[in-house]
Amino acid sequence: MRSMTRLLALLLACVLSTGAMAAEPPRFTLAWSIYVGWMPWEYAKANGILDRWAARYGIEIDVVQVNDYIESVNQYTAGQFDAVTATNMDILTIAAASGVDSTAVIVGDYSNGNDGIVLRDSDQLAAIEGQRVHLVELSVSHYLLARALDTLGLSERDLTLVNTSDADIVSAWAATGVPAVVTWNPMLAEIRDMPSANVVFDSSRIPGEILDLTVVNSETLDAHPEFGQALAGAWYETVALMFDEARAEAVQAHMAAASGTSLASYQRQLQTTRMFAEPEEGVAFVDSDAPKQTMQRVAEFSWDKGLLGPMAPDPGFVGIEFADGSIWGDARNVQLRFTNRFMRDVANDAR
Q: What is the mean pLDDT of residues 211-215?
């Protein structure tokens, strides 16, 4: 009898344990790196906004800072994260080109001066010819450089490129006396304040081409759309606080400190960022022809540089689906998607 009682107790414990395990909410991870347009994620996590939105949808979301930006995209591509902050070019050439189907659930902004080319002792872009140029190769910095060289009728053959991690580029400029760098904020802001630094070309010359996205693995998103809903809700609540008259300074001061810079410097970076502060703005941009035009240009550059992989026969190797359902590139190999769904839902909820 005692053995039967113990058996029943064990079975009950197993049932209760299984029930507890089943009741655990789905858990997701978002990787981010320091950049003016992605600091809302740090604030949303630190101030409980993201946790509150996650709880609303019955999930949990971990936010992980990765100091090396490109490494964060690599880790996302390897399946270590469910979502990542990335530019349109990097998510195309790293994740999508590797066969990781990804969806941009939030188009947060575009760089409007946050990426730039800096020369030492010259304020003329033409002086870059023949120089050693330090940059994160095959990143948006590389794309910006190519666009700048087009204006001069030059090519990369006229330069020497030196691949440099974004974590090392400020110290490389300061310590080694390199003649030229291409980088983004906050590193760009640090370098431009140093002696002999001249920003000779920046992303305001190519508005709307360097997009800053929050991207989710499409398979994960299809199975758990609540993940996208929680991200979008938390994002726009946080961005609203950034520009709220009564709270903007305190919120931006927090973001500045978290990114290792001063409030004044962070606010200068915001001035060169075209933030889509309202979800309606993000929807309008995604629904326009701008993403189609930009992604075709980016895909052509990427293919020319071999960034789509050795098997890519043409720039359209990776199919890209847009918010209206149209596809540019190979419809049999769609690996990058733009959607207005989650931004639109936030806009509708706010009405």
A: 97
What gap in Å lies between CA 291 and CA 298, rounded to an integer?
Answer: 10
User: Minimal CA–CA distance to 96: which of 311, 341, 332, 337?
Assistant: 337
254 vs 277: CA distance, rounded Å: 18
CB 114 within 8 A of CB 188: yes
Taking the C-alpha atoms of residue 351 and residue 345, their distance in angstroms, rounded to an integer, is 10
pLDDT at residue 177, as a whole number: 80
pLDDT at residue 22, rounded to an integer? 55
Q: What percent of the chain has pLDDT over 70?
A: 93
Sequence-separated (6 or more) residues with CB below 8 Å from residue 349? 233
Q: Averaged over 244-272, what is the pLDDT?
A: 95
Distance CA 142, CA 136 (A): 7
- pTM of structure: 0.86
Q: What is the largest CA-CA distance in the chain?
A: 92
Tokens of 258: 């978290």
CB 91 within 8 A of CB 213: yes
Tokens 């490109």 locate to: 70
Q: Are 53 and 233 in contact (CB under 8 A)?
A: yes
